[in-house]
Amino acid sequence: MTSAKTPKLAAYELLQFAALAVPPLALAERFARLLSDVRGRDDTAYWLAVASSVAYVTSCALLVWVPLKRRPTMLAYLLLCTLPSFAIIIASSQVQVNAGVRLDHFAELPASLVILGLICVDLVERLRPCRLLGQDLGFELPGPVLTNLEAVSSISNTVHPNESRNGVPPDRRSAPPNNPDTPGRRTEPPAGRSAPITSRTPGPAYLHSSSRAFSGRLSFLGRSDARSELFVDCFLFWLDTVELVRVAGEPAVFYSAWVYPVLILAFLSSLRAVLAPHGPFSSTAGVALQDFPFLVTRVSLLAVFGPVTPVLFPLKNALVSLTFFYFTYMTRMKIFKRHSMF
């Protein structure tokens, strides 16, 4: 009988391969049509660009994607798909600028297709530990977990017969109590008994279910599942990058030299997905690779081109950067440790 994990694994691999192959092929075909129109309906340039894109996707799939099963999936996807896709967008801009024509500024396709592939691959990587059927258990356990169910003796049985009723003999009242919570003090288990074992299976923070039990007729409204919340978290994770890529599609930005820093910063911000979500370095990477560079870029774009991006996004970048530096570094200074302040 086929394991239930086999169809899930096959679906994940097919979805990731589609996300790897479709964006470069679609962008390359659009660039090929643009190249043919710039050269006066040259079919040779069109088919040469299409054949090159097909050869690239085939070689990447056969030589890199399929053989390397233990690959860092997000890093491989960013290098094999996202980076070439952004390079095609920049090349299409320069081809039109050099030819002195404006035929296609790739307004909607990058933000809708390239980032959609990123979201699909990121969702698959986050969903791998989850079950697609049944209740949400947080994560799938690799095997049985053994716990020690040995009974623990009561406090009254551990009192020495020579001790008083209060638990402290007269000759030991001056000594500090043997508190197991006292730092630097270690307690040994009684002879002949093993120490109780507490096992904990770690799991990603974003896989813990946040559902709570409510009673009453409206209890169904209080139900939630970590798997559905994972989709929301993934789309919010990429929202800021999607907006910056959309700005690169604006004609004023697309036909200028600003398309280079915008797309380069968008690619660098996507490197945050290589790290584990909610990991120890996710906050620092978010500020260093996304919020602070995006803040500088968006303020510069607003100053040069006007309202090409909503003011909400630079405000978000500014607030995230300021609060990160304040709560992470400034609150550790002596002046902020005084209880008389806020």
Automatic annotation (TrEMBL):
Alphabetical keyword list: Membrane, Transmembrane, Transmembrane helix
Top-rank taxon: Eukaryota
Transmembrane spans: 44-68, 75-93, 105-124, 255-275, 311-329
Protein's UniProt keywords contain Membrane: yes
Positions of the UniProt region annotated as Disordered: 158-207
InterPro entries: Uncharacterised_FAM23-like_TM
PANTHER family per UniProt: TRANSMEMBRANE PROTEIN 236 (PTHR31453:SF2)
The name this protein goes by in its record: Transmembrane protein 236
